[in-house]
Amino acid sequence: MILWTQFIRTSQTSSSKSVSQVQAQATVAMAEPAYTIPAFRQRTADEGTEEYQRVSTKVGKGLTVIQEELHRMRMTTKAQVDSIAIQREVRNMMYKKTDVLEDIPKLPDFLVALRPHTVWEKTPVKLFCTVQGNPRPIVKWYKGGVPVDPLTAPGKYKIENKYGVHSLIISRCAVSDTAEYSAVATNIHGTTTSKATVTVKRAAGSGEPCQLGLVPHLTEIYPSKLEVSMLDRFSVSFGVEGGSISLVCTLVVVPDLPNLPPLAQWYRDDKLLKPSKLVEMSVGGGAARLTLPHLAKDDEGLYTLRIFTKDGTTEHSAYLFVSDAAPSAPGAPGAPLSVKAYDINADYVLVAWKPPNTVNEMAITGYFVDRCESGSDKWVQCNDAPVKVCKYPVHGLKVGHSYHFRVRAVNSTGISRPSRKSDKVTALDAAESERLQVIKIEGKYDIVIKDDDLEGYVTIPGEPTDVHASEIFKSYVVLSWKPPSPRGRAPLWYVIEKCLAGTGAWQRINTAVKLHSPRYPVFDLQDGQKYQFRVYSVNLYGSSEASEPSEPIQKVDEDGIPPWSGVPSAPGQVVATRNTKSSVFVQWDAPKYLKNLMGYYIDGRIAGSKEWFPCNHKPFKHNRFVVHGLIPGESYTFRVQAVNVYGLSEESQESSSITVEPALATPSAPFGITLLSCDGSSMTLAWKKPKHFGGSKVNAYYIDKRNADSLVWKEVNLVAVKERICTVDNLTEGTFYEFKVQAANMAGVGVPSAPSAPMKCEAWTMEEPGPAYDLSFSEVRGQSLVLLWKAPVYTGASAVTGYLVDMANKGSSEFVTLTQEAVNHCYLKVTGLKEGETYVFRVRSVNAAGVGKPSQLSEPICAKALPGTQEIVAGVDEETGDVFLSFEACEICETSKFVWSKNYKAIGECPRVAVTKKGRTSRLTFSSPDKDDLGAYSVIVTDTNGVSASHTLTEDALNTMLELSYAIRHPIVPLKHGLNYEVLEKGHVRFWLQAVKLSSSVSYRFIVNDKEVTSGEGIKISHDVATGVIQMTLDHFTRANDGTYTVQIHDGKAKAQSSLVMVGDVFKAALKEAEFQRKEHIRKQGPHFSEYLYFTITEDCTVMLACKLANVKKETSFHWYKEDDEIVPETPPNVMSGACALPIPLFSRKDHGIYKAVLSDDRGKDTSLFDISGKVFDDIINALAQNAGASASELVLQCTPEGIRLQCYMNYYTEEMKTVWKHKESKIASSEKMRIGGTAEMAWMQICDPSDKEKGNYSIEISDGVQTHTRSFDLSGQAYTDAYEEYLRLKAAAFAEKNRGRVVGGLPDVVTIMEAKSLSLTCTVWGEPTPEVTWFKNEQEVASTEHTKVTFEGGKFASLVITKVTPEDSGKYSINVRNKYGGEFVEITVSVYKQGEQIPEPKLGHPKTPAATPVSTPVPPKSPAPPPKTPTPVPPKAQTPASMRSQASTPASTPIPKSPTPTPKSPTPSRSAKSPTPPRFMKSPTPPRK
């Protein structure tokens, strides 16, 4: 019964009268182990059955009485409430309210008085009464004359006032609740009291526990009839705005019915929560869960879970803190909270909220209010300027529309995140519901009567009344009035006028607004002026008379805030006291002036820090608060601010500094009493330390004993025992004894432990050792821990040689031995654990005789590190060079000590190490570390929840730290970069080095060839502390400057030296670079090239030689040269543009050479050379090839008389490009059969006299040195057949063109001859076979006569000779030369003039012809050369007509051509007629590129 009572006090719940098996398991998990019941105290089965039947009968009768009483109470309450409802309905049926009756003062009077109750223990009872009075009385409840405060016992008392019924509910009655209860009603006219007695009875035998373990039979089970126990309860929680959090409490339910979970209720700050989008609740699966998916500061508060059980209710409470989310801008305030809408009307709502806590942010200067129509995401800002108080009247709403509101805070840094939006409110006229009256007939029928029906027919409404200011602030005033009566049925609105008080000059103020609500905010009032207001009622029939003017109203200014407004005064004295190891209890005095106080904000800071942090984020209403989440062992101070609608008060005075530690109390009971040895007259006992020390160190233990068959305890020791082991002497052998232990600290002696199991005083004689004892844990982590124990007191027949360690999961009896062989020390590091799992351990001692009895099981240990756990850090002190191990505890208290061990043996006083402590950090410093100090070091922080750590010091780590220690004790200036050199502009040489860090007191010197160098002419020495650079610059670096350069540095105790050897090749390279930079500097004084010549390729494959210029002017000249020959480009170079370029079109090998650009003016000259040869030439060709390859078209087929040609068009082609033609993947070489060539626009490959062997796939590969561009054509199948036929046709046409008849030369175009002279027209003809020749005159064939003689000699020479020409011989002559392949027709114009006449002008643009000379024998021309093989026609040059010579001695003149053997470039002269069979060219199967 004692253990069960302790369980009841721990959980704050009602205990069950019967103990089921599930409850027994929960009890074992939560309470301390119980001892075995002695045999003489046990009952038989029959005795237990009789007792069970007796208890069941009593309980059954008690339940029946309770049910009957509850039913009677319900009926009585219902009858009384119905009576009150009838009275209210009667009053509503009155035509006109009697204002006079309401104004009559009336003492409080109880209509329904309290009545006495008699109830069973652990059942609820409800006391209720109904009171009336004018003004309405205030009711207070008393128990035995003492006021009833629900906060003193959360969940026990509940006071309600609903519908005029005042009630006091005692949720779970105890015998101590038997008392006289009174309800005291008070108003200004007096006080009246109603009293009643509550008697709580206990069922007979209820004080005796039932040992049968049976569950009484229940005929019907309800959720409230279940036995429910809470196990793992939710603790104080911390969340962040915008996040989510779940509060979970695991339950044990008997019986556990899946479809019938227990009834659970969640409360926040004593307000019942209901499921919604912001609150999710679930009960089942052995847990009750509350989830807040969208946290806001509105969710902060005290959360209570109340479970209805068989015996009443059980509950648990914990606080939830919700901190601000990250601000929208650095320094912006937190979001406002608790946004609500009040005074809702048709177009007006008063929005109110609570201000956020500002700790380190700038003060809030105002607020913006936003509204959003329900169902929309579009927010509209309501106020143009920030409002300074936490209220704002929003007008201009639409009647019948629903809205949400939110608020944003503003300070000088920015605007906060928006608050959580308010609940939905609908803009409706509140006066409409008051104009309805509902009358119930016989409690069944409702008759609704409107005031409109009672007013009769009204057109013009009455005037409003009671115009006054309901809200007065600095930025606005809210006007309120009562609607008119009578009102009329037509829609009504209001018109408002104002005037300066006493002037009578009225002015309308809502000209643009049609106002439907009896509320209106006025914003544009002047400071310091008093105003009066009046209101008109208006409908479609007209306007009422003006209302009575209001009293003079003045807007509040900052200098004249009345005493009832403004922020509250600062809270009074703040006192902080110890609470738990991570919380502090803070109390303060209320402000002197409350001024409608909303609550308080509490701030804290670590002692010595300047940064404050908020302890709560929602105003707390009471003047005491528990601050959670503090660092154990740290010291804090606190301050408080009061909050109201105007903002935050001044800060209170700071509290005294307090260290976070548990409140001082007596320790809890020790447990686990174990027998370690017995010699027949004495017994050696050990026990485990208390789980709770009570805030101070346990410094004493007291042991009591008794015979197992006795009830009297006797003290064992009068002098306190310091250790947890004690030998009890003067015992009787063979007797059973029980023991109990009490722990003591500076607060006193704690409660005794549970009695141990009965132990027989009998001498131990076994050869095996006794049990090890005092199992403890250290360094508990997620996957490992260290188990520690003490050697057994009883060693057996021989010394203990080792230990075996067994492990099992909690609740399991299957142990696993962790050690293959016995370990010879009293500790073991256990690895391979699963994080979050709970384990138990035991230890067995081993000696030569065997394995001894196991130790008592260890406490269950969860493999999980403490929050904030740190590890031991090995390091070297930066100032002294000492090697140390350091540990920072995650929690600590005033009595905590750091206990260091080596190989898990306490170090104690040792000259090799020194232990120091500072705050929560302890350091173990080695005096002269060497190999003897290697090993495993551990530290335990006493009086904590197992704070500990270990570190193994290895030889390598020690050597590394010793090297660092030496470097610190013999410091050097660390260098980022050693001495180096750099050649600057103008040929200056800079010698420099860079240190990691330099102080302002650094000193140094430069030494060159064993001589110190100082700053002077041509030498500059300097340093920069910020960058750590030390440098020396030589203005003139010459051959005399070779040698060794050294820098020596002294910075405090540290030294450094760095050298650079400048001889040999290193010096030559530096000197060459310096001279080059010097020349470059001189060059850049005049016009120069900022970028020397380079080449680029344009899109049309033009090569551009480009350069960039600097320091030029208009007079600067620029010239291009190739191989010293000047190039004059078409566009003169423009030097002022800063760049010049020389285009090289159609680039090829001909463009090899050295190009030069010369820039000069009166300041100097600069030259840039560019050698286009070798690799440069190849690079240009590759660049051209890249452009050409990218632009290359697909292969095109073209037939010629010689064969079939494949052509590839591209932007540019030259034979220097790396192009390869392939046939069936085999490379083609240029030959008589396969000819390869190209033009500037294309590359081609011709197959001469093609045959079937040339069928197949052809491709061309264009390589640019990086990639290869490939184009292909499949010359096979129908494509080859069509191409071959076209080739044969063109070949035949070319053969015919080659062998047709034609005039090779010799005939002029125009002949002018004097009368009586002889004319000879002679020409050479050719054809195979020999052509036929026919002469014509004016298209008539000329026959050979004496006057006109026609000859054709040798098949080559044809002539027409006219002797003694006459004017009749003038005309158009022509010759027709033709064979079977075709022919040619040539025309000659002959003009004859008389002697003495002016020679006519020659036609066709030919020069004048001299007088005809006598005919001479023509010289036969040479045989004409055969026409060229290539049949492609080429236009010939224009021919000049032959000159005619006149011979006076001969009667005839024969024109002689200039060249008797002309060799025309084309077999077809330009003036010849077309062949009767002109050739046709076949189009390629693949269309050519356009």
Topology:
Elements: H1 2-11, H2 21-30, H3 45-92, H4 99-102, E1 106-112, E2 117-120, E3 125-134, E4 138-143, E5 146-147, E6 157-162, E7 165-170, E8 179-187, E9 190-201, E10 227-230, E11 237-240, E12 245-254, E13 264-268, E14 271-272, E15 280-284, E16 287-292, E17 301-309, E18 312-323, E19 337-342, E20 348-354, E21 364-373, E22 380-381, E23 391-395, E24 402-411, E25 425-426, H5 430-434, E26 436-441, E27 445-450, H6 451-455, E28 465-472, E29 477-482, E30 493-500, E31 507-508, E32 519-522, E33 530-539, E34 542-543, E35 553-554, E36 574-580, E37 583-588, E38 599-606, E39 613-614, E40 624-627, E41 635-644, E42 647-648, E43 658-659, E44 671-678, E45 683-688, E46 700-707, E47 714-715, E48 725-728, E49 736-745, E50 748-749, E51 759-760, E52 773-778, E53 785-790, E54 800-809, E55 816-817, E56 827-830, E57 838-847, E58 850-854, E59 861-862, E60 873-876, E61 883-888, E62 898-902, E63 905-906, E64 913-918, E65 921-926, E66 935-941, E67 948-953, H7 955-969, E68 975-983, E69 989-995, E70 1003-1008, E71 1011-1013, E72 1019-1024, E73 1029-1034, ...
Parallel strand pairs: 2-9, 11-18, 92-99
Antiparallel strand pairs: 1-3, 3-7, 4-5, 4-8, 6-7, 8-9, 10-12, 12-16, 13-14, 13-17, 15-16, 17-18, 19-20, 20-23, 21-22, 21-24, 24-25, 26-27, 28-29, 29-32, 30-31, 30-33, 33-34, 33-35, 36-37, 37-40, 38-39, 38-41, 41-42, 41-43, 44-45, 45-48, 46-47, 46-49, 49-50, 49-51, 52-53, 53-56, 54-55, 54-57, ...
